[in-house]
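Most newcomers find our protein records easier to grasp once they have seen one. Read left to right, the backbone structure tokens trace the chain's path through space. Once this layout is familiar, the rest of the handout is easier to follow. The record below serves as our worked example for the rest of this section:


***
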Amino acid sequence: MPLTADDREQFIADNQEAFLYGATQEFGMRDDHFEEDGQIISRETIERSIDGERAQAWRIVLEGRKVGGMVLRIDESGRKGELELLFVSPRAHSRGIGQAAWREVERIHPEVLVWETTTPYFEKRNIHFYVNKLGFHIVEFFCAAHPDPSEADAGGEEEDADGMFRFEKVMGASGSAPGLF
């Protein structure tokens, strides 16, 4: 269901909880992966995503309970989409919820030919999910030696200098389609 204004604060808190869970599973409470006081993903990053141009923020609901959320952005042509955020509550992991939510995105946006997303290098669970469950392909690795050009365009520093994988999913294709865009 679409994110409502009265659920915005809880959406942010739930998103931070889910991202924090993944990072603490991998690293414990080491400070060098946190964007702000004790959070892997900052409020500012989430708000920038929710409020972005052409952003679509959604709640994932199961049996009347909000168990996750996502933010999508589809370009002006409608042919290229970006999954900016996707999270499922750690209490609802391993139940196929994220996969079902993504299948619904594909169903309601058949016009999108290529989907893109990123995830930090340490999020093994996310990497498995995108590649093995949803059919995305890793197409790039951003790090200090190869920074994300969209971060430079935004005038900001690389959000995760340790590394971010960029994924693409070409709809209706088993492999990549070089030169499609």
Remarks:
- The two ends are 30 Å apart (CA to CA).
- The first strand starts at residue 55 and ends at 62.
